[in-house]
Amino acid sequence: MAEKRMAADCRKFPSEKNCDVYMSGSKEHVLEAAVEHAVGSHGHQDTPEFRKQIEEFMTEETASV
Fold first, then answer.
1. CA dihedral for 22, 27, 30, 31, sign (positive or negative)
2. Which of 16, 19, 44, 45 could form a disulfide with 38 if both were Cys (CB 3.0 to 4.6 A apart)?
3. Domain-embedded: residue 1
4. Which string of DSSP letters, residue by residue, matches 5-57?
5. Taking Cα atoms as reference points, which of 58, 62, 63, 64 lies closest to residue 7?
6. Is residue 38 domain-resident?
7. Is 55 a member of any domain?
8. Number of other CB atoms surrounding residue 56 within 10 Å
């Protein structure tokens, strides 16, 4: 069985930049990319608590065929 694809959508977070970044892939890859994006583009700190928040906001991507 294939690994579930997860998604992170920046539009779900309030932002002064009105960021519209959307990313999807394996949970591990999306988490790393989302943390890098949040730190580099939005000035967040990479902490265990922040990583947990991102994981909680990630959703399972629905299949599109």
1. positive
2. 44
3. no
4. PEEEEGGGS--TT----EEEE-HHHHHHHHHHHHHHHH-----HHHHHHHHHH
5. 58
6. yes
7. yes
8. 8
- Placement of tokens 């990313």 in the chain: 23
Residue at token pair 């999306």: 30
Count, residues in the chain? 65
How far apart, in whole angstroms, are the C-alpha atoms of residue 54 and residue 48?
Answer: 10
Count how many domains the chain has.
1
Structure confidence by residue, pLDDT tens digits, 19-42 = 999 999 999 999 999 999 999 999
pLDDT band at 7 (very low <50, low <70, confident <90, very high): very high
Look up the domain containing 31 and give its range. 6-60
